[in-house]
Write a structure and sequence with these properties.
A two-stranded antiparallel sheet has the order 1-2. It is an alpha+beta fold. The longest helix has 12 residues. It is built from four helices and two strands.
């Protein structure tokens, strides 16, 4: 009998968020980026327009779910 490794049973609690593209909803994506990162409007807009780009590292799981 083999036991499953403890790491496989643990659930991830931190995630990195990478914006690949903003699609047709650029304004909505900027709003979400601002809310998630605390950036100002210009900084969030520049980040979204620079996609693909890392938005934030080590997001907590509860913050990602609505």
């Amino acid at each position: 009998m083999l036991a499953a490794p403890a790491e496989a049973a643990e659930e991830k609690t931190e995630f990195s968020v990478i914006l690949k593209s903003f699609g047709e909803n650029k304004v909505n994506v900027i709003k979400v980026v601002r809310a998630a990162t605390g950036l100002g409007l210009k900084d969030a807009k520049d980040l979204v327009e620079a996609a693909p780009k890392s938005v934030k590292k080590a997001f907590q799981r509860m913050k990602l779910r609505k």
